[in-house]
Specification:
single chain; alpha/beta; 10 helices
Length: about 280
């Protein structure tokens, strides 16, 4: 499996340790942090705290993608994310932009974004053209349906095989456009058009995805309903379950974990790595 990730201004050797991507939602309606960081000053404060906590990549989102959430116009999404990019780009850490809109991708890259994290797998018209000539990292995620309807009745013949086939097709489309493999990561899309059973089948199969596609896997389970379904906890009480999910994903081969609770995840991964690394 390829061990190097090109992420805009930054490069990572993924063989050394798992990376922690911290979630920074600048939306008024995030399922988890409820618009707490919508104001720029609070977003900057949160980003600086994540850096102190050991974050590797900061993932900025200007549109909620929780189940049932309405789509946001591109100009509104730009109004939310662009000030954050300009305010944070000189902090010395990669900035990822969580968007599926071509216009937002273009403007974010011009402003200095280091990664585009697309829940739609770069399927929007013009999306591949928007990113192909940059050096930013690209995260290709699987989603069945749209955020508006994805959890209505998710169904697969074989969820693991179906997700791998989708990711392979999207990766091939990027490669055919001239995108270097070193820029690409894949995400099975936990909670995006999946039942609890689908999510855990995918979690158990991360190593298979990595092996079959030869690309690093990004896993985003933090505080999601798949955690609540097992623990019986509400969103604000899912820290321990989310840490368990992150460690399970890394144990299965995930190279990046996308989380809300950066400090706790960094500590958990340090202990996990100390326990699994042979220093002799």
């Amino acid at each position: 499996m390829r061990q190097y990730l090109q992420c805009g201004r930054f490069g990572y050797n993924l063989a050394q340790r798992p990376l922690v991507m911290g979630i920074l939602n600048v939306t008024p309606d995030s399922f988890s942090d409820g618009g707490r960081f919508q104001a720029l000053e609070f977003a900057v404060e949160r980003a600086e705290q994540m850096i102190k906590d050991g974050v590797d990549i900061i993932d900025i989102g200007g549109e909620s993608t929780r189940p049932g959430s309405p789509s946001v116009p591109a100009d509104e999404e730009l109004r939310r994310v662009m000030p954050a990019i300009y305010a944070l780009r000189e902090l010395g850490y990669p900035l990822s932009i969580d968007t599926c809109k071509t216009e937002v991708m273009r403007e974010a890259i011009i402003a200095g974004a280091d990664m585009i994290n697309d829940i739609n797998g770069f399927r929007a018209p013009g999306a591949i053209d928007a990113v192909k000539d940059s050096d930013c990292g690209l995260c290709v995620m699987h989603m069945q349906g749209t955020p508006q309807d994805m959890q209505a009745l998710p169904a697969y013949e074989d969820v693991v095989a179906d997700v791998i086939a989708f990711l392979r097709e999207r990766v091939d489309a990027l490669l055919a456009a001239g995108v270097a493999r070193e820029r690409i990561t894949i995400d099975p899309g936990f909670g995006f058009g999946k039942s609890v059973e689908h999510n855990y089948a995918l979690l158990r199969s991360i190593s298979r995805m990595e092996s079959e596609l030869g690309l690093p896997v990004l896993a985003g389970l933090s505080r999601k309903s798949m955690i609540g379904a097992v623990t019986g906890r509400s969103v604000e009480q899912r820290l321990a379950g989310s840490l368990g999910g992150a460690l399970a994903a890394v144990a299965q081969g995930a190279r990046i974990v996308r989380v809300h609770d950066v400090a706790e995840t960094v500590d958990a991964l340090k202990v996990w790595q100390a326990a699994t690394t042979n220093n002799q």
